[in-house]
Design goal:
By secondary structure, the chain is of the alpha/beta class. The protein has a single domain, classed as Maf protein, CATH 3.90.950. The protein contains 6 helices and 7 strands. Helices cover about 30% and strands about 25% of the residues. The chain has helices at about 15-20, 45-70, 105-120, 155-165, 190-195, 200-205, and strands at about 5-10, 30, 75-90, 95, 120-135, 140-150, 185-190. The model has no long low-confidence stretch (mean pLDDT about 95). Strands 1, 2, 3, 4, 5, 6 and 7 form a 7-stranded mixed beta sheet that branches.
Length: about 210
Amino acid sequence: MQIARLILGSRSPRRRELLELLIPPESIDVLPPRSSDELGFDGLTSWLDIARRLQQIAREKNDDVLSQLSSSSDSQLVLTADTIIVASDADGCYRVLGQPPDDDSWREVVRGWFCDLYAGRSHIAATSVCVTEVRTGRRLERIAQSHVWFREDAEPLLDWYLATNEPLGKAGGYALQGLGSVFVTRVEGSITNVVGLPLEAITELLPQFGWPLK
């Protein structure tokens, strides 16, 4: 009997670990998109525009992976995702926070995020998921949102947290599954979404393709 195979189009080890909670590891192949360049969110301040752009990014990743497959591929599905942190500023406009800058300014940037946008408030972790059936091209998409609340007295722990270097490479400058959890007081919605892959959405999408969950 042929084993059903799913391609995870991601460079994230964390996404694979999460997916393996639902699917046997031997059924998962990893094939990242060839290009790491992605559309940005500059100038987008409404949730609708941000959600559309997020969905477009996950869709383009999916198309990139599909273009790498040969006609003889035995893979049934391609799954891609993209996660962002969205906070609201003093004017009530949405801001998408990516990874901290790749230079010496990153600590002050993250400090500003924590003090001005996170502390004592909630922000949104959003993940767009795109799944395509290789043979037919049938595609399903979802956007998962989780609201994350931070403690109000975040500043006393900031010097310690920044010294760990954990914010580097993390969307929004923190990792819920790591030391960043000390700032979080509540999560409303999918916790795995904040980590990078909303398993609740995956359990809704895959059965629609007749995919057996673990």
